[in-house]
Amino acid sequence: MSENKNLKHIAIAGNIGAGKTTLAQKLSLHFDWDTYYEDVDHNPYLEDFYDDMPRWSFNLQIYFLNSRFNQIRQIQQGAKTVIQDRTIYEDAYIFAPNLYEMKLMSERDFQNYITLFRTMSATFGAPDLLIYLRASIDTLLKQISKRGREFETNIRIDYLERLNNYYENWINNYKAGPLLIINVDQYNYAEDEQDLQRVIQLVSEKIGG
Asked: How confident is the model at residue 159 (pLDDT cuts 50, 70, 90)?
């Protein structure tokens, strides 16, 4: 499919296990977009974080913040449309505040983190399209189990539920740019070709092509 030259940055947001990477792969293939993935396999803090959240929460969030900020800089400097697997906003508005509220991140670390995010966010704008993958806890758990990452076996249900609540609050108040909400409970785009085509159609309508 030919590229819409007005598009630079498509971003996919969603809870752990919502299917962001799968959708990014499929949309990039269909629309001929470059893809920037979340660095999970080479993340030096993720496994430690799930073993000891209070000790590693700040380190993990700083790593993600830096990684996502560098991706945004590359998108701004590049010529092609890019689809990004998870956004910098999720780090700042969902994961870090949740860790702080759960007392898994100290007040000092949280304020340091938020100040750094605000400094960074003054240098870039919102994505040209934000795709939010809404999923029930049952769906998240099934998809987390299916992909079989050992370090994710320790994820607590209440942790996922809290993240879902943060996501819904963020999305319900999102005014920064165009937004497309896809209910993952209804669209099995990973395995059902018809569902995938429906999702592609929804995206096409949103980007005007």
From this structure: confident
Sheet holding 34-36, edge to edge: 34-36, 82-85, 9-14, 129-134, 179-183
Residue 138: Cβ within 10 Å count: 10
Q: Is the domain covering 9-207 a CATH 3.40.50.300 domain?
A: yes
Question: Is residue 109 predicted with pLDDT exceeding 80?
Answer: yes
Q: Which member of 32, 34, 85, 138 is catalytic?
A: 85
Kindly state the tokens that stand for 161. 């539920």
Q: Is 85 a catalytic residue?
A: yes
Cβ atoms of residues 78 and 101 within 8 Å: no
- With beta carbons less than 8 A apart as the criterion, state whether 187 and 195 touch: yes
pLDDT at 42: 78
Helix (H, G, I), strand (E, B) or coil at 182: strand
Flag whether pLDDT at 143 surpasses 70: yes
Tell me the angle at which helices 157-172 and 137-147 cross, rounded to the nearest 10 degrees: 120
Place 1 in a pLDDT band, splitting at 50, 70 and 90.
very low
Domain ranges in the chain? 9-207
